[in-house]
Design a protein that fits this description.
By secondary structure, this protein is of the alpha/beta class. It contains two helices and nine strands. The strands form three sheets. Strands 5-2-3-6 form a four-stranded mixed β-sheet. Strands 1-4-9 form a three-stranded parallel β-sheet, with helices on one face. A two-stranded antiparallel sheet has the order 7-8.
Length: about 100
């Protein structure tokens, strides 16, 4: 079946490159991240780190069977320079930064 939009939450965001860490044991979420046409990922401000070095210090891969950094639609081009966006995942990725009210 087709999946137009997926909305999920990330436990970690990386400021330097806009990547977010998605870790899950849910095989449906894992598949949906790459099969949905559009993905919206919610990131809490307090879960942001400056760079990938800090991100790797926070990640514990022993707690889930799957984890991936997601950083936007894939792009590829063939020998004729025909660009394809979203060939290996969603065509559109939106990150929503949530700030706790003070």
């Amino acid at each position: 079946a087709s999946l137009d939009v997926l909305v999920c939450e990330s436990s970690l965001g990386v400021a330097e490159n806009g990547a977010v860490w998605i870790a899950t044991t849910d095989s449906l979420l894992r598949a949906a991240l790459f099969l949905a046409a559009r993905v919206v990922i919610i990131v809490r401000e307090e879960s942001l780190v400056d760079d990938l070095h800090q991100a790797y210090e926070r990640i514990d891969v022993r707690h889930t069977s799957y984890g991936a950094f997601v950083a936007g639609p894939s792009k590829t081009a063939d020998i004729e320079q025909a660009l394809v966006v979203g060939a290996h995942g969603p065509k559109e990725l939106t990150l929503v930064l949530v700030r706790e009210a003070t």
